[in-house]
UniProtKB/TrEMBL annotation, chain A:
Pfam families: ABC_tran. This is Methionine ABC transporter ATP-binding protein. It is found in: Cell membrane. One of its GO terms (biological process) is response to antibiotic. It comes from the Bacteria. It comes from Actinoplanes utahensis. Residues 2-247 form the ABC transporter domain.
UniProtKB/TrEMBL annotation, chain B:
This is ABC transporter permease. It comes from Actinoplanes utahensis. Pfam families: ABC2_membrane_6 (PF06182). It comes from the Bacteria. Keywords: Membrane, Transmembrane, Transmembrane helix. InterPro entries: ABC-2_transporter-like. The chain crosses the membrane at residues 25-47, 59-80, 118-134, 146-173, 204-222, 234-254.
Length: 316, 266
């Protein structure tokens, strides 16, 4: 569905090099990205600010012309075949609206039907589904400029889907949304992805979006792909481990050791301890601990994807 | 067919959006009319001081003004909107235009339907009509054809200049009002007989860039006057070709510009 081979995009920027002098410098925003994404895949595309996420998305949608390399989406080359491609993809740029600022949401949707030349029946059916799933009814007649960010984003999602796109590109669809709106957007996308008809590529800074939605995670930094695989593969690769947190009746005896685990924190006057599980199973660690001291409470903490990604970014 | 309906839908959306801001519309409507009135006033004032300018009488000069302002007003009405491109490029909102399944230039032009500029078009053609009646023109069939074609040709030429100068923004985001030097500057240049300009300035604007063929050469051909600068009498009939050349250049510049668009970070 999507193929990129050795994709590059560089920009020339002028940098101040003195009071009047300016130097030209070339910056590679995307520096040799090769990826293949199949039909129905849901891919999370993440990276720190300025890593080249949006630039990649803009090359995939035909907004930017690649400096070099090959790219094809739905079998089309984005820039030369931009208008044909636009009929087959949906795009939500979190920071750029596709809606008409001064018109009610309902009218924006009606206009999009003409712009994308969608048969009236298909359009009505898709709109009905989005209205149900995204609760649009209460603000369908409000001018877009008066909508809250969460309401607008639900409108943008609908706008991107009314022509039944094969690929949906989402650039930070949950940016700035409150918890409830985030949930609404996520569960809507999850439902959409579950049908398997739509290929979904999503950039985000909120890793909960990825955990909830994407099986495949592509991490980009400095314009290069630094990880491509499942979230589990990322944990394995960066050795992120589960940890065992226990509240004890009394502090651990001096020199206590748990085989296959390491003590990483002792708090609350020795009454709370944290072990990182290196090779021990959770069961063995719990048994070992309970044998040594009376335990009041136990919890097993899954590795946090935020930590893993933070470590990934820090490696550069 | 479907595509035409899409553009029509886009235009109707703009009209409905504009209708939500009624009073600013009225202000602009009258502001625009004022501009053309001043074009004519300038020429009238000039001829109060001197009976002839650059070898042309008042009514001959008004014919040149009429051709120039009718063509310019028509171009400004149809494609003048393209000058908002610089705002779109600076803000990166060109992205939204480029993800739609329609061509970028018509979308930009339909971002706003400048009903307020209609009065200006009407005024330009009125000046042209009065000048045609006031001059003693020998109406041969080729001249009838020319008088129909000339304002359209001038509009096409100015339209191309609008597109080219707006496209500067693709390379140079702070192009600001540089483009206006060629659009509004071009209109002012073509409002006078080009005999009034110094040779190098005239060679650059009138012949190299083609502004002589907007109003001056067609006016000569209509009046049946020999060109004091030596071009043959039928030079005025070349205007459509010059305009066509301008369109080709504008299309190439626009296309190169779109590929050079760099969006903004988000």
């Amino acid at each position: 569905m999507i193929r990129m081979r050795e994709l590059h995009k560089s920009f020339t920027v002028r940098v101040k090099a003195g009071r009047f002098r300016r130097e030209k410098r070339t910056v590679a925003a995307v520096d040799g990205v090769s990826l293949t994404i199949g039909r129905g895949e849901m891919v999370g595309y993440i990276g720190p600010n300025g890593a080249g996420k949006s630039t990649t998305l803009k090359m995939l949608t035909g907004v930017l012309t690649p400096s070099s390399g090959e790219v094809s989406v739905c079998g089309l080359t984005p820039v030369p075949q931009r208008t044909r491609l636009a009929l087959r993809i949906g795009v939500v740029f979190g920071q750029r609206s596709q809606l008409w600022w001064d018109l009610p949401l309902r009218e924006s949707f009606a206009l999009l039907r003409h712009i994308y030349r969608v048969p009236a029946g298909d359009h009505a059916a898709r709109l009905r589904r989005c209205r149900e799933l995204l609760d649009l009814d209460e603000f369908l007649d409000t001018p877009v400029r008066q909508l809250s960010l969460g309401q607008r984003m639900r409108g943008e999602l609908t706008a991107a889907l009314l022509h039944g796109p094969e690929v949906l590109f989402l650039d930070e669809p949950t940016i700035g949304l409150d918890v409830v709106s985030k949930q609404a957007v996520r569960s809507f996308l999850a439902e959409l992805g579950a049908t398997g008809d739509v290929t979904l590529v999503l950039t985000t800074h909120d890793l909960a979006d990825i955990e909830r939605l994407c099986e495949r995670l592509v991490v980009i930094d400095h314009g290069r792909v630094v990880h491509d695989g499942s979230i589990e593969a990322l944990h394995t690769r960066y050795g992120s481990r589960r940890s065992l947190v226990a509240d004890l009746e009394k502090p651990l005896p001096d020199g206590f050791e748990l085989p296959g685990a390491s003590l990483t924190a002792v708090t609350a006057n020795g009454h709370r301890v944290t072990f990182t599980l290196d090779s021990a199973t959770a069961g063995a660690a719990v048994a070992g601990l309970v044998a040594a001291v009376p335990v009041r409470d136990l919890s097993l903490v899954e590795p946090d994807i935020e930590d893993v990604v933070a470590r990934l970014y820090a490696e550069r | 067919m479907g595509e035409l309906r899409a553009y029509a839908a886009l235009a109707s959306a703009q009209i409905r959006s504009a209708a939500t801001y009624r009073s600013s519309f009225l202000v602009e409507l009258f502001g625009n009319m004022g501009a053309t009135v001043f074009d004519v006033l300038t020429v009238l004032v000039l001829f109060r001081a001197t009976p002839a300018v650059g070898g042309f009488s008042l009514w001959e000069a008004i014919l040149i003004v009429g051709l120039s302002s009718a063509g310019f007003a028509l171009a400004d009405f149809a494609v003048g909107n393209v000058d908002r491109l610089k705002t779109f490029v600076r803000a990166g909102t060109m992205d939204s235009v480029l993800v739609r399944p329609l061509r970028a230039l018509p979308q930009l032009l339909l971002m706003d339907l400048p009903v307020r500029k209609v009065l200006r078009v009407a005024l330009g053609f009125t000046v042209l009509g009065v000048a045609l009646a006031a001059n003693d023109i020998d109406w041969t069939p080729p001249r009838v054809l020319l008088v129909v074609l000339a304002p359209v040709t001038a509009a096409v030429f100015f339209g191309s200049i609008f597109v080219i100068s707006a496209s500067l923004a693709f390379w140079w985001v702070d192009s600001g009002e540089i483009g206006s030097a060629f659009t509004y500057g071009g209109r002012d240049f073509t409002s006078y007989p080009i005999t009034v300009y110094g040779p190098w300035f005239r060679n650059l604007f009138a012949y190299t860039l083609g502004f002589a063929f907007v109003a001056y050469q067609p006016a000569l051909a209509l009046l049946g006057r020999p060109d004091p600068l030596g071009l043959p009498a039928w030079a005025g009939f070349l205007s459509p070709l010059v305009a066509l050349g301008a369109v080709v250049v504008a299309a190439a510049v626009w296309r190169a510009g779109i590929r050079h668009y760099r969006s903004t970070g988000s």
